[in-house]
Amino acid sequence: MDWTKHIRQTDLQQLIINWEEQQPLKGTSNERDYKPVVKLFNPMGIGTWLITECDNDGLAFGLSDMGYPELGYISLEEVFSVRLPGGLTIEQDIYFTADKTLQQYADEARAIGHLNA
Prior knowledge:
Elements: H1 9-22, E1 38-41, E2 48-54, E3 59-65, E4 69-75, H2 76-80, E5 91-92, H3 102-112
Antiparallel strand pairs: 1-2, 1-5, 2-3, 3-4
């Protein structure tokens, strides 16, 4: 499966740029707190992801909410392999524009119990 077809090319390029910038900073005080580039969602129910960065193989970092918010690594290949009733799949919200950093979304989600984006 080609997961890259599910994300707009300009967004995918920015995710990869963020990944490459972040890698040498991981685990240091200089680690960046990016605004999410991409919001993915389940059009039929639970499941939302805010993604800030990813590598060329689809390993991404972001905030997921599958009933409880959690920061961590996400396999985009796995996310986009989900098949929903009626032939639907996980989708990119092309109208989403982040107004906070990922950590701010995560803090808010923990406070209210769910992702609000």
